[in-house]
Amino acid sequence: MRDRENHLAPSRSAGPAGVTGGGISSATLIRSAAALFLARGYATSTTRDLAEALGIRKASLYHYIDGKEDLLYAICKQSLDELSERIRETIAVTSPEDCIKEVIATHLRTVLARKDMYSVTLMETRSLTGRRKAEILESRESYRSLVGEAVRQGQATGQIRSDVDTRFLTMALLNHLNWVLFWYTPEDGPAEDLAVIYTLLYLEGAARPV
Fold first, then answer.
1. Is residue 127 situated within a structural domain?
2. DSSP string spanning 116-167?
3. What gap in Å lies between CA 33 and CA 73, rounded to an integer?
4. What pTM was computed for the model?
5. Buried b (16+ CB within 10 A) or exposed e, 50-65
6. Which terminus of the chain has a lower count of CB atoms within 10 Å, N or C?
7. Containing domain of residue 139, as a range?
8. Is residue 45 a part of any domain in this protein?
């Protein structure tokens, strides 16, 4: 499917950009693939499974994509591009004193809005191959660097300890935030409330106040 916005690789019989040959939007195709890959795992999911979920014949699916890796790449690429853009915008408009707090809130708000896609990106990047895998790994590293900038600002303002390397503090924060995807449900409350708790835990720890 020819769709630059959603990063799907061109199919030999693709329709107009943004809409697949049978009238299924690329956004719908990506969301359905993300739900399937999360539920069954990428390795055990098949194009037949995806076709059934979309209510189309398996043969028709190949009017939209050349293979299921097209969809995994699109999920990872779209997720990381969106997250990086949101964090970049947040850092640009936020004071150094508020930067880490706003980055935490932006990250949680963004990933929880598309929980399936971001979960698949975290778990299944390893299933990509060749150039696509290298590109997504590079994008992940670029995102870590963006978050690292927020951590550095926190160190510069004295909010975050400076006796620990920025890289370790950044990885600790990302582990802190990304694990939310594996337990969060809407019953746990809005992302904004969760961000307040996670900011408190990251900046002050879990020790009882004295």
1. yes
2. HHHHHHHHHGGG--HHHHHHHHHHHHHHHHHHHHHHHHHHHTTSS-SSS-HH
3. 11
4. 0.85
5. bbeebebeeeebbbbb
6. C
7. 74-204
8. no
